[in-house]
Amino acid sequence: MDIHNEIRPHSQLLKLLFAFKNKVGAVFKDILGIHEINHIAITRVSIEQEIVIFSSTPALEFNLFSSGLWHYDQTYHPAWFRLGVQTSWQSLYNPTRYDELYYLKQIKHHYPIGSSLAICQDNVFYIYSLASKQSCSQTQEIFTNQYDDFRKIGLYCTNQLQDLFITCDNLASLSEPQELKQLTPMDSLV
Question: Which residues have C-beta within 8 Å of that of residue 131, sequence separation ≥ 6?
Fold first, then answer.
């Protein structure tokens, strides 16, 4: 049984995680530090059910997808993201691979607190994953209660990164794979 209802990573997801480092970094720089946020990733699940991710810590998602562990993280399951809720990372880990996911996403990158929330915009789902290096009760409370602020932060970043999502769509629609450097936005955008 396919638990993802045919959700799949973009054919060049692992390269795309690092391809637009300057543009993505400039957008995320604006919000890192707000509400103790030390990590943000924006995942888009397109109408075609294809995953594209931009991340302030691309190594996290690279390791998650290259190892196949993403299959055990409910963040990428339609049954979760279609609910449009905010959930702690630990609650989204499949129990059979909990320890591996906890190590990869939280211990390895020093993020004791992580949360994901999903929204739907024009039949496209966006998942905002945020994490903090702080573990105090104040930060835990912020990550539990700031749904609206986190949603606004995610929407801001999504709007700033729309040109890159379009570039990824164009890359996916080509019949023959092209080198990423040929498809990057104009230098003024990166």
Answer: 37, 38, 39, 40, 89, 105, 106, 109, 111, 113, 114, 115
Q: β-pairing, 8-9 with 50-55?
A: parallel
Domain ranges, ordered by start, for the chain: 8-189
Report d(CA 125, CA 36) in Å as an integer.
25
pTM higher than the cut 0.85: yes
Domain at 8-189, CATH class: alpha beta
Question: Could you tell me which residues come within 8 angstroms of residue 119 by beta carbon, excluding any fewer than 6 positions away?
Answer: 84, 125, 126, 128, 151, 154, 155
Give 51's contacts (C-beta < 8 A, 6+ positions apart).
Answer: 7, 8, 9, 10, 13, 43, 44, 45, 76
Name residue 177's amino acid: P
User: Each residue of 28-56: pLDDT tens digit?
Assistant: 998 998 988 999 999 999 999 999 999 99
